[in-house]
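The records we work with from here on pair a chain with its fold. A complete example follows; check for yourself that the lines match position by position.
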Amino acid sequence: MGGWCHESLMAISHAWIVRPEARSCFFSAPQEFTEEKFGQAEKTELDAHFENLLARADSTKNWTEKILRQTEVLLQPNPSARVEEFLYEKLDRKVPSRVTNGELLAQYMADAASELGPTTPYGKTLIKVAEAEKQLGAAERDFIHTASISFLTPLRNFLEGDWKTISKERRLLQNRRLDLDACKARLKKAKAAEAKATLWNDEVDKAEQELRVAQTEFDRQAEVTRLLLEGISSTHVNHLRCLHEFVKSQTTYYAQCYRHMLDLQKQLGSSQGAIFPGTFVGTTEPASPPLSSTSPTTAAATMPVVPSVASLAPPGEASLCLEEVAPPASGTRKARVLYDYEAADSSELALLADELITVYSLPGMDPDWLIGERGNKKGKVPVTYLELLS
Protein backbone atom coordinates (compact mmCIF):
# COMPACT_ATOMS: atom_id res chain seq x y z
CA MET A 1 0.00 0.00 0.00
CA GLY A 2 2.89 2.37 0.66
CA GLY A 3 3.70 2.63 -3.06
CA TRP A 4 0.12 3.50 -3.88
CA CYS A 5 0.06 6.19 -1.21
CA HIS A 6 3.15 7.86 -2.63
CA GLU A 7 1.79 7.84 -6.18
CA SER A 8 -1.54 9.20 -5.02
CA LEU A 9 0.07 12.12 -3.20
CA MET A 10 2.05 13.00 -6.32
CA ALA A 11 -1.10 12.91 -8.39
CA ILE A 12 -3.00 15.04 -5.91
CA SER A 13 -0.33 17.74 -6.01
CA HIS A 14 -1.09 18.10 -9.72
CA ALA A 15 -4.81 17.80 -9.18
CA TRP A 16 -4.83 20.92 -7.02
CA ILE A 17 -3.62 23.03 -9.93
CA VAL A 18 -6.97 24.31 -11.11
CA ARG A 19 -7.28 26.82 -13.90
CA PRO A 20 -8.95 30.13 -12.99
CA GLU A 21 -11.86 29.62 -15.34
CA ALA A 22 -12.99 26.60 -13.27
CA ARG A 23 -12.75 28.14 -9.80
CA SER A 24 -16.04 29.96 -9.93
CA CYS A 25 -17.80 26.65 -10.37
CA PHE A 26 -16.06 25.08 -7.36
CA PHE A 27 -17.52 27.60 -4.94
CA SER A 28 -20.93 26.10 -5.76
CA ALA A 29 -20.00 22.68 -4.28
CA PRO A 30 -21.62 23.27 -0.84
CA GLN A 31 -24.79 24.41 -2.54
CA GLU A 32 -24.67 21.35 -4.80
CA PHE A 33 -24.28 19.03 -1.79
CA THR A 34 -27.28 20.63 -0.07
CA GLU A 35 -29.46 20.36 -3.17
CA GLU A 36 -28.49 16.70 -3.61
CA LYS A 37 -29.55 15.97 -0.04
CA PHE A 38 -32.96 17.47 -0.75
CA GLY A 39 -33.22 15.71 -4.12
CA GLN A 40 -33.07 18.97 -6.04
CA ALA A 41 -29.92 18.21 -8.04
CA GLU A 42 -28.55 15.37 -10.13
CA LYS A 43 -25.62 13.34 -8.82
CA THR A 44 -22.78 11.78 -10.82
CA GLU A 45 -22.76 8.09 -9.96
CA LEU A 46 -19.62 5.99 -9.73
CA ASP A 47 -19.44 2.74 -11.69
CA ALA A 48 -20.35 -0.58 -10.03
CA HIS A 49 -16.72 -1.74 -9.81
CA PHE A 50 -15.73 1.44 -8.01
CA GLU A 51 -18.65 1.10 -5.59
CA ASN A 52 -17.59 -2.48 -4.85
CA LEU A 53 -14.06 -1.30 -4.12
CA LEU A 54 -15.42 1.30 -1.70
CA ALA A 55 -17.62 -1.25 0.08
CA ARG A 56 -14.72 -3.72 0.31
CA ALA A 57 -12.44 -1.05 1.76
CA ASP A 58 -15.03 -0.02 4.36
CA SER A 59 -15.59 -3.64 5.35
CA THR A 60 -11.84 -4.22 5.69
CA LYS A 61 -11.48 -1.16 7.90
CA ASN A 62 -14.44 -2.06 10.14
CA TRP A 63 -13.40 -5.68 10.70
CA THR A 64 -9.76 -4.74 11.20
CA GLU A 65 -10.83 -2.38 13.98
CA LYS A 66 -12.96 -5.05 15.65
CA ILE A 67 -10.26 -7.74 15.41
CA LEU A 68 -7.64 -5.31 16.71
CA ARG A 69 -9.72 -4.26 19.72
CA GLN A 70 -10.68 -7.81 20.69
CA THR A 71 -7.11 -9.06 20.33
CA GLU A 72 -6.01 -6.26 22.64
CA VAL A 73 -8.60 -7.48 25.16
CA LEU A 74 -7.32 -11.03 24.79
CA LEU A 75 -3.72 -10.03 25.41
CA GLN A 76 -4.51 -7.52 28.17
CA PRO A 77 -7.91 -8.08 29.86
CA ASN A 78 -7.36 -5.18 32.28
CA PRO A 79 -8.96 -2.06 30.69
CA SER A 80 -6.94 0.32 32.88
CA ALA A 81 -3.72 -1.32 31.78
CA ARG A 82 -4.80 -1.03 28.12
CA VAL A 83 -5.48 2.69 28.54
CA GLU A 84 -2.08 3.17 30.16
CA GLU A 85 -0.32 1.31 27.33
CA PHE A 86 -2.25 3.37 24.76
CA LEU A 87 -1.09 6.62 26.38
CA TYR A 88 2.51 5.47 26.44
CA GLU A 89 2.32 4.63 22.73
CA LYS A 90 0.79 8.01 21.87
CA LEU A 91 3.54 9.76 23.83
CA ASP A 92 6.08 7.62 21.96
CA ARG A 93 7.45 6.26 25.21
CA LYS A 94 8.39 2.71 26.09
CA VAL A 95 5.66 0.80 27.91
CA PRO A 96 6.97 -0.26 31.35
CA SER A 97 7.34 -3.96 32.01
CA ARG A 98 4.29 -5.37 33.74
CA VAL A 99 4.14 -8.42 36.02
CA THR A 100 1.77 -11.05 34.64
CA ASN A 101 -0.96 -12.59 36.79
CA GLY A 102 0.86 -15.91 36.74
CA GLU A 103 4.08 -14.35 37.97
CA LEU A 104 2.22 -12.49 40.72
CA LEU A 105 0.52 -15.70 41.85
CA ALA A 106 3.90 -17.45 41.85
CA GLN A 107 5.32 -14.75 44.11
CA TYR A 108 2.41 -15.08 46.55
CA MET A 109 2.79 -18.86 46.70
CA ALA A 110 6.55 -18.63 47.23
CA ASP A 111 6.05 -16.11 50.04
CA ALA A 112 3.38 -18.30 51.60
CA ALA A 113 5.67 -21.34 51.51
CA SER A 114 8.46 -19.35 53.14
CA GLU A 115 6.19 -18.22 55.99
CA LEU A 116 4.24 -21.45 56.49
CA GLY A 117 7.28 -23.69 56.26
CA PRO A 118 9.13 -24.64 53.09
CA THR A 119 9.96 -28.12 54.44
CA THR A 120 6.35 -29.10 55.17
CA PRO A 121 4.39 -31.06 52.53
CA TYR A 122 2.16 -28.03 51.91
CA GLY A 123 5.13 -25.69 51.68
CA LYS A 124 7.01 -27.98 49.29
CA THR A 125 3.95 -28.20 47.04
CA LEU A 126 3.49 -24.43 47.11
CA ILE A 127 7.08 -24.01 45.94
CA LYS A 128 6.60 -26.47 43.07
CA VAL A 129 3.36 -24.85 41.93
CA ALA A 130 4.91 -21.39 42.27
CA GLU A 131 7.75 -22.37 39.95
CA ALA A 132 5.26 -23.68 37.38
CA GLU A 133 3.16 -20.51 37.61
CA LYS A 134 6.30 -18.44 37.13
CA GLN A 135 7.09 -20.39 33.96
CA LEU A 136 3.52 -19.89 32.75
CA GLY A 137 3.81 -16.16 33.40
CA ALA A 138 7.05 -15.97 31.44
CA ALA A 139 5.47 -17.88 28.55
CA GLU A 140 2.50 -15.49 28.61
CA ARG A 141 4.82 -12.49 28.54
CA ASP A 142 6.64 -13.87 25.47
CA PHE A 143 3.32 -14.58 23.74
CA ILE A 144 2.00 -11.06 24.37
CA HIS A 145 5.24 -9.52 23.11
CA THR A 146 5.35 -11.67 19.97
CA ALA A 147 1.65 -11.22 19.17
CA SER A 148 1.88 -7.46 19.63
CA ILE A 149 4.75 -7.15 17.17
CA SER A 150 3.65 -9.66 14.55
CA PHE A 151 -0.12 -9.07 14.62
CA LEU A 152 -1.31 -5.94 16.44
CA THR A 153 1.32 -3.57 15.03
CA PRO A 154 0.54 -4.30 11.33
CA LEU A 155 -3.19 -3.84 11.97
CA ARG A 156 -2.57 -0.51 13.70
CA ASN A 157 -0.26 0.60 10.90
CA PHE A 158 -3.00 -0.03 8.37
CA LEU A 159 -5.62 1.92 10.32
CA GLU A 160 -3.33 4.80 11.22
CA GLY A 161 -1.46 4.98 7.91
CA ASP A 162 -2.93 3.51 4.74
CA TRP A 163 -6.55 3.94 5.80
CA LYS A 164 -6.09 7.61 6.64
CA THR A 165 -4.59 8.15 3.20
CA ILE A 166 -7.51 6.35 1.56
CA SER A 167 -10.00 8.41 3.57
CA LYS A 168 -8.30 11.64 2.56
CA GLU A 169 -8.40 10.75 -1.12
CA ARG A 170 -12.05 9.73 -0.86
CA ARG A 171 -12.92 13.11 0.61
CA LEU A 172 -11.06 14.82 -2.23
CA LEU A 173 -12.95 12.67 -4.72
CA GLN A 174 -16.24 13.68 -3.10
CA ASN A 175 -15.30 17.34 -3.47
CA ARG A 176 -14.33 16.83 -7.12
CA ARG A 177 -17.65 15.14 -7.77
CA LEU A 178 -19.58 18.00 -6.17
CA ASP A 179 -17.59 20.47 -8.27
CA LEU A 180 -18.35 18.47 -11.39
CA ASP A 181 -22.07 18.29 -10.65
CA ALA A 182 -22.16 22.01 -9.87
CA CYS A 183 -20.57 22.73 -13.26
CA LYS A 184 -23.09 20.45 -14.96
CA ALA A 185 -25.94 22.29 -13.29
CA ARG A 186 -24.50 25.66 -14.27
CA LEU A 187 -24.11 24.62 -17.90
CA LYS A 188 -27.66 23.32 -17.93
CA LYS A 189 -28.95 26.65 -16.62
CA ALA A 190 -26.80 28.58 -19.11
CA LYS A 191 -28.23 26.61 -22.02
CA ALA A 192 -31.75 27.10 -20.72
CA ALA A 193 -31.16 30.85 -20.46
CA GLU A 194 -29.61 30.93 -23.93
CA ALA A 195 -32.68 29.30 -25.33
CA LYS A 196 -34.69 32.19 -23.92
CA ALA A 197 -32.18 34.65 -25.40
CA THR A 198 -31.31 36.01 -21.95
CA LEU A 199 -27.61 35.11 -22.08
CA TRP A 200 -24.85 35.68 -24.57
CA ASN A 201 -23.19 32.71 -26.20
CA ASP A 202 -19.93 33.32 -24.34
CA GLU A 203 -21.67 32.41 -21.06
CA VAL A 204 -22.41 28.94 -22.40
CA ASP A 205 -18.87 28.62 -23.69
CA LYS A 206 -17.54 29.58 -20.28
CA ALA A 207 -19.76 27.02 -18.53
CA GLU A 208 -18.64 24.31 -20.96
CA GLN A 209 -14.99 25.16 -20.30
CA GLU A 210 -15.54 24.95 -16.56
CA LEU A 211 -17.24 21.59 -17.01
CA ARG A 212 -14.33 20.20 -19.01
CA VAL A 213 -11.86 21.27 -16.32
CA ALA A 214 -14.04 19.83 -13.54
CA GLN A 215 -14.41 16.56 -15.44
CA THR A 216 -10.63 16.31 -15.87
CA GLU A 217 -10.03 16.94 -12.16
CA PHE A 218 -12.69 14.41 -11.19
CA ASP A 219 -11.30 11.71 -13.50
CA ARG A 220 -7.77 12.27 -12.19
CA GLN A 221 -8.87 12.02 -8.56
CA ALA A 222 -11.04 8.99 -9.30
CA GLU A 223 -8.01 7.18 -10.74
CA VAL A 224 -5.88 8.00 -7.70
CA THR A 225 -8.60 6.77 -5.35
CA ARG A 226 -9.20 3.64 -7.41
CA LEU A 227 -5.52 2.68 -7.23
CA LEU A 228 -5.55 3.06 -3.45
CA LEU A 229 -8.73 1.02 -3.10
CA GLU A 230 -7.33 -1.77 -5.27
CA GLY A 231 -4.32 -1.81 -2.95
CA ILE A 232 -6.62 -3.26 -0.27
CA SER A 233 -5.89 -6.65 -1.85
CA SER A 234 -2.24 -6.36 -0.82
CA THR A 235 -3.43 -5.36 2.65
CA HIS A 236 -5.38 -8.62 2.88
CA VAL A 237 -2.28 -10.57 1.88
CA ASN A 238 -0.23 -8.82 4.55
CA HIS A 239 -2.88 -9.39 7.21
CA LEU A 240 -3.09 -13.05 6.21
CA ARG A 241 0.63 -13.47 6.82
CA CYS A 242 0.29 -11.70 10.17
CA LEU A 243 -2.61 -13.96 11.12
CA HIS A 244 -0.45 -17.03 10.48
CA GLU A 245 2.23 -15.54 12.73
CA PHE A 246 -0.36 -14.92 15.45
CA VAL A 247 -1.60 -18.52 15.31
CA LYS A 248 1.99 -19.78 15.42
CA SER A 249 2.80 -17.71 18.51
CA GLN A 250 -0.43 -18.78 20.22
CA THR A 251 0.28 -22.42 19.45
CA THR A 252 3.76 -22.09 20.89
CA TYR A 253 2.37 -20.46 24.03
CA TYR A 254 -0.21 -23.16 24.71
CA ALA A 255 2.31 -25.92 23.97
CA GLN A 256 4.69 -24.42 26.54
CA CYS A 257 1.87 -24.12 29.08
CA TYR A 258 0.90 -27.73 28.56
CA ARG A 259 4.46 -28.93 28.95
CA HIS A 260 4.96 -26.96 32.18
CA MET A 261 1.71 -28.26 33.66
CA LEU A 262 2.44 -31.83 32.62
CA ASP A 263 5.81 -31.64 34.41
CA LEU A 264 4.09 -30.17 37.47
CA GLN A 265 1.47 -32.91 37.46
CA LYS A 266 4.20 -35.56 37.42
CA GLN A 267 5.96 -33.89 40.34
CA LEU A 268 2.77 -33.61 42.34
CA GLY A 269 1.84 -37.19 41.50
CA SER A 270 5.05 -38.59 42.93
CA SER A 271 4.87 -36.40 46.02
CA GLN A 272 1.19 -37.13 46.65
CA GLY A 273 1.86 -40.84 46.39
CA ALA A 274 4.39 -40.49 49.19
CA ILE A 275 2.02 -38.43 51.36
CA PHE A 276 -1.19 -40.34 50.64
CA PRO A 277 -0.20 -43.97 49.83
CA GLY A 278 -2.61 -45.86 47.64
CA THR A 279 -4.16 -42.80 46.01
CA PHE A 280 -4.12 -42.20 42.31
CA VAL A 281 -3.32 -38.75 40.99
CA GLY A 282 -4.95 -37.83 37.70
CA THR A 283 -7.60 -35.76 36.07
CA THR A 284 -11.23 -36.79 36.23
CA GLU A 285 -11.39 -36.59 32.44
CA PRO A 286 -8.60 -36.78 29.90
CA ALA A 287 -7.92 -33.26 28.69
CA SER A 288 -7.07 -32.23 25.20
CA PRO A 289 -4.16 -29.77 25.20
CA PRO A 290 -3.34 -27.42 22.32
CA LEU A 291 -1.51 -28.70 19.32
CA SER A 292 2.23 -28.43 19.60
CA SER A 293 4.12 -25.90 17.55
CA THR A 294 6.05 -27.06 14.54
CA SER A 295 9.12 -25.40 16.01
CA PRO A 296 11.59 -27.97 17.46
CA THR A 297 12.08 -25.83 20.55
CA THR A 298 8.39 -25.87 21.41
CA ALA A 299 7.39 -29.37 20.37
CA ALA A 300 5.21 -31.03 22.97
CA ALA A 301 3.28 -34.28 23.05
CA THR A 302 -0.41 -33.99 22.43
CA MET A 303 -2.79 -35.85 24.69
CA PRO A 304 -5.79 -36.99 22.66
CA VAL A 305 -9.40 -36.83 23.70
CA VAL A 306 -10.73 -40.28 24.54
CA PRO A 307 -14.38 -40.83 23.70
CA SER A 308 -16.52 -42.61 26.23
CA VAL A 309 -16.39 -46.39 26.14
CA ALA A 310 -20.14 -46.64 25.91
CA SER A 311 -20.18 -44.67 22.69
CA LEU A 312 -17.38 -46.70 21.11
CA ALA A 313 -18.03 -50.21 22.25
CA PRO A 314 -19.75 -52.55 19.78
CA PRO A 315 -22.95 -54.31 20.84
CA GLY A 316 -22.21 -56.76 23.59
CA GLU A 317 -18.81 -55.34 24.51
CA ALA A 318 -20.13 -53.02 27.23
CA SER A 319 -21.12 -56.13 29.23
CA LEU A 320 -17.66 -57.68 28.83
CA CYS A 321 -16.73 -59.71 31.93
CA LEU A 322 -13.05 -59.05 32.58
CA GLU A 323 -12.71 -62.04 34.90
CA GLU A 324 -13.51 -64.30 31.95
CA VAL A 325 -11.03 -62.61 29.61
CA ALA A 326 -7.86 -64.56 28.93
CA PRO A 327 -4.92 -63.28 26.85
CA PRO A 328 -4.48 -64.95 23.48
CA ALA A 329 -1.76 -67.50 23.05
CA SER A 330 0.05 -65.07 20.77
CA GLY A 331 -0.40 -61.41 19.96
CA THR A 332 0.33 -59.78 23.34
CA ARG A 333 2.65 -56.78 23.32
CA LYS A 334 4.33 -54.49 25.76
CA ALA A 335 3.30 -50.84 25.75
CA ARG A 336 4.59 -47.74 27.48
CA VAL A 337 1.97 -45.37 28.91
CA LEU A 338 2.31 -41.83 27.54
CA TYR A 339 -0.09 -40.00 29.87
CA ASP A 340 -1.90 -40.52 33.14
CA TYR A 341 -5.41 -41.88 32.64
CA GLU A 342 -8.09 -42.43 35.26
CA ALA A 343 -10.50 -45.27 34.62
CA ALA A 344 -14.04 -44.11 33.92
CA ASP A 345 -15.57 -47.33 35.27
CA SER A 346 -14.65 -50.81 36.53
CA SER A 347 -14.14 -52.12 32.99
CA GLU A 348 -11.17 -49.79 32.40
CA LEU A 349 -7.64 -49.87 33.75
CA ALA A 350 -6.15 -46.74 35.30
CA LEU A 351 -2.77 -45.74 33.87
CA LEU A 352 0.26 -43.84 35.10
CA ALA A 353 2.62 -42.15 32.67
CA ASP A 354 5.84 -44.06 31.80
CA GLU A 355 4.73 -47.39 33.26
CA LEU A 356 4.88 -50.59 31.15
CA ILE A 357 1.84 -52.80 30.69
CA THR A 358 0.88 -55.80 28.58
CA VAL A 359 -1.80 -55.20 25.96
CA TYR A 360 -3.75 -57.32 23.51
CA SER A 361 -6.95 -57.15 21.48
CA LEU A 362 -10.01 -59.38 21.49
CA PRO A 363 -12.27 -60.24 18.57
CA GLY A 364 -14.98 -57.65 18.08
CA MET A 365 -13.30 -54.95 20.19
CA ASP A 366 -13.35 -51.35 19.09
CA PRO A 367 -9.98 -50.59 17.39
CA ASP A 368 -9.49 -47.53 19.63
CA TRP A 369 -9.26 -49.72 22.73
CA LEU A 370 -7.12 -52.64 23.94
CA ILE A 371 -7.13 -54.89 26.96
CA GLY A 372 -4.32 -53.90 29.31
CA GLU A 373 -2.80 -55.96 32.12
CA ARG A 374 -0.61 -54.85 34.99
CA GLY A 375 0.09 -57.55 37.54
CA ASN A 376 -3.22 -59.08 38.52
CA LYS A 377 -5.23 -56.09 37.26
CA LYS A 378 -6.73 -55.83 33.81
CA GLY A 379 -9.11 -53.58 31.93
CA LYS A 380 -9.73 -51.66 28.75
CA VAL A 381 -7.23 -48.91 27.89
CA PRO A 382 -7.28 -46.25 25.14
CA VAL A 383 -4.79 -46.92 22.34
CA THR A 384 -3.96 -43.22 21.97
CA TYR A 385 -2.47 -43.19 25.48
CA LEU A 386 0.03 -45.91 24.61
CA GLU A 387 3.28 -46.35 22.76
CA LEU A 388 3.31 -49.92 21.48
CA LEU A 389 6.76 -51.47 21.78
CA SER A 390 8.14 -53.98 19.33
Residues 2-24, 276-319 have pLDDT under 50 and may be disordered. The radius of gyration is 36 Å. Residues 106 and 130 are 4 Å apart (CA to CA).
